[in-house]
Design goal:
heterodimer; A: alpha/beta; Leucine-rich repeat, LRR (right-handed beta-alpha superhelix); about 15% strand; globular; B: four-stranded parallel beta sheet; 4 helices
Chain lengths: ~375, ~130
């Protein structure tokens, strides 16, 4: 019943212990969004919140009778109180002092000057931007590490944030559809993070939740803020429900989309080609598993006029996809296909028409010998 | 599907042909696969064709040293259309290292038997 909308790269920031909240019937990790809000607010004030700084200087947790610098005042204004334990203080102060000059950690706590938390900041900021980028590039698949790096310092935040928000994942679990449930779109737009999103992934274990009713007018406007999305991945999406006005929902991507992946699309072959023709600059297509044949003809297939002639000059991956009509319709409307790489494992029926259409451009062909599809019609040895 | 529909002669710039599940355990499958590869090799007309890739799953690696006829067919195909022979492991996760070692051992055995004598250079593993 619950649909979780997960904004990649945000949930880890909330490891400070913020509770999640229920908005409608979508579980939005609200603490994380608040944390991002805080980062943004501090960024505007030319400050980046740092967990170490907050722990040491939060005045409401434990007053140790020391003057606080300007950084601590800013931090205490912008962050809620965070409990601090003796063990934390001991660890922090031990790290910042010479053990030979103090007797116990608690004595050092009372007598020594406070450590300078900016040391960690400064040392990481001394790393040249190019080097920091190379370091971060090794962590693009490790979201936890990316989130940690984003809290290190200002320069590392700006280096990691494009990776953190590279993919926006919208998850849905139930078949019930309600409207206006795509709030993360508006939140990302509000936080000016939408331009960082390069890929949108819609996950649904059962078809249903991602349909026209899920879009409010505001959501459709919010989609236009995602101006750099080049990859769309739709899982179990009922494309037929967007017909015949599919451009109202996906039209924002018509010029910018380069790659599309469809897992088990629910539509007719003709509706699928109509949908694909919406994206003018589309190069790569991947379609997997179209075992579910649901024919919902909202309008007759012959009346579906293609929007454009997509470029289709990249990579085609088909898995267990044997809708020949999709390609014949697309070839007719595009005047041919120009794929350079094809992976057609489990898609035997489509091979002849695709080979004929891409005869001038195909460089790499991959297929599988699984099954007995080639066992009939083989010429004799003499031939 | 008729083989005539699978005509590679139309492909003008084909560089790489990659075939999965070519190495089979049963004799019936082997027979069909070998005939298919032979006919397919004869239809390649692309002047830039350079590599024939055999995609292997980890289970198929153990069958490799027994595929005498398949290697003979690959030899005939190589004679008509010289190309590089590549073995591509379709394995993911932690078992990739072990599968790669198994494949190396299997290819050493195949080479020792002389099945790959038709190649100018040793086969590539990816």
């Amino acid at each position: 019943m619950n649909r979780e909308i997960d904004i990649l790269g945000i949930e880890g920031v909330g490891s400070l212990g913020r509770p999640t909240s229920l908005v409608g019937d979508i579980v939005v990790v609200a603490g994380e969004l608040e944390a991002i809000d805080r980062i943004r607010t501090c960024r505007q004030r030319d400050q980046i919140p740092h967990p170490l700084t907050e722990m040491v200087t939060s005045p409401t947790t434990r007053d140790v009778g020391r003057p606080r610098g300007p950084r601590s005042r800013i931090s205490s204004e912008t962050s809620p109180p965070i409990p601090i334990h003796d063990s934390d203080l001991c660890a922090i102060y031990t790290a910042g002092t010479n053990p030979s000059t103090s007797s116990t950690p608690f004595d050092r706590l009372l007598s020594d000057p406070p450590p300078e938390p900016r040391i960690a900041h400064e040392s990481s900021c001394r790393v040249p931007y190019e080097i920091a980028e190379m370091i971060i590039a090794h962590l693009v698949r490790d979201l936890g590490a990316l989130k940690t790096c984003s809290l290190t310092c200002r320069s590392w935040y700006f280096t990691t944030v494009p990776h953190l928000h590279h993919t926006l994942t919208l998850k849905g679990g139930g078949p019930d559809v309600t409207h206006g449930e795509l709030k993360p779109l508006s939140k990302l737009r509000e936080l000016s993070l939408a331009p960082f999103v390069k890929q949108i992934r819609v996950q649904s274990w059962e078809a249903g939740w991602f349909g026209p009713l899920a879009f409010s007018c505001i959501d459709q406007c919010n989609l236009s803020a995602f101006a750099n999305v080049h990859t769309l991945e739709l899982q179990n999406v009922e494309i037929y429900r967007f017909m015949p006005v599919v451009e109202c929902y996906f039209g924002h991507f018509s010029q910018i989309l380069r790659s599309i992946t469809l897992h088990n699309p629910h539509c007719t072959p003709r509706q699928l080609s109509h949908f694909l023709s919406l994206f003018t600059n589309l190069d790569d297509i991947e379609i997997r598993n179209t075992h579910t044949f649901i024919f919902h003809e909202t309008i007759p297939g012959r009346d579906l006029i293609p929007f454009s002639a997509p470029k289709l000059r990249g990579r085609l991956v088909l898995r267990d996809f044997n809708w020949v009509e999709t390609w014949t319709h697309l070839i007719t409307s595009c005047g041919g296909l120009r794929f350079r790489q094809m992976d057609l494992r489990g898609s035997v029926s489509c091979i002849p028409v695709l080979l004929g259409a891409c005869a001038e451009t195909l460089e790499t062909l991959r297929f599988s010998m699984a099954g007995k599809w080639f066992s009939t019609g083989l010429p004799t040895d003499s031939s | 599907m008729h083989l005539g529909s699978f005509n590679l002669a139309r492909l003008k710039v084909l560089r790489s042909l990659q075939v999965g599940e070519l190495v089979a355990g049963s004799a019936v499958d082997l027979h069909h696969h070998e005939r298919f590869v032979r006919v397919m090799g004869l239809t390649i007309r692309s002047p830039v064709f350079s590599e024939f890739v055999v995609i292997l799953e980890s289970a198929a690696v153990s069958y490799l040293p027994q595929q005498v006829t398949l290697f003979e067919t690959l030899g005939k195909m190589n004679a008509s259309k010289p190309s590089k022979l590549v073995f591509l492991l379709d394995v993911s996760g932690d078992s990739k290292g072990e599968a790669r070692r198994n494949l190396t051992r299997a290819l050493d055995l195949v080479t020792a038997k002389g099945f790959l004598d038709f190649l100018d250079s040793p086969p590539t593993i990816r």
